[in-house]
Amino acid sequence: MPNLKMAEIIRRNREAGRHFFDPEARRFFRSVIGRRVYQGPGGVFFVTSERFGEPVDEVPRRYTLRHFDPKTGDVRTAGEPHVLDRETAEHLARKAAAGAIGPRDVDLWRSAKEKAELEAAR
Asked: Is 112 helix (H, G, I), strand (E, B) or coil?
């Protein structure tokens, strides 16, 4: 499979009749789509960020790992949405694309990381 660009992922999603990238949906969720696509034996992943709450300018942006299925054009959330910081989301995207973790392992990895950070802070 050739390296996909975000524009190609958006096009395939729309052609499949999906609405993940619709401007109305992105506005509602205050979503920003990352430009980088992480692709490898584990699949195709990218990162989004959203803001929830008011006032918008004071609410931190939270990040979500997304998995793109090139066969169906579908986009799925990998792990719990809106809980990651940018650095962790990008790290997980690289690991998932490389096949080092599966999309469902994201929460387990995040939980272990948070536990280690809490223990180190004690």
From this structure: helix
Both tokens assigned to 101: 């973790």
User: From the CB of residue 67, how many other CB atoms can be counted at a distance below 10 Å?
Assistant: 23
pTM of the model: 0.83
Contact 86, 62 (CB under 8 A): no
- Please choose, from the candidates 61, 109, 102, the residue with its C-alpha nearest in 3D space to the C-alpha of residue 83: 61
78-87, pLDDT tens digit by residue? 988 888 889 9
**In total, how many domains does the chain have?**
1
Q: Is residue 33 assigned to a domain?
A: yes
Residues across the chain: 122
Q: What is the CA angle 57-63-65, rounded to 5?
A: 160
Domain residues for the domain of 83 are 6-121
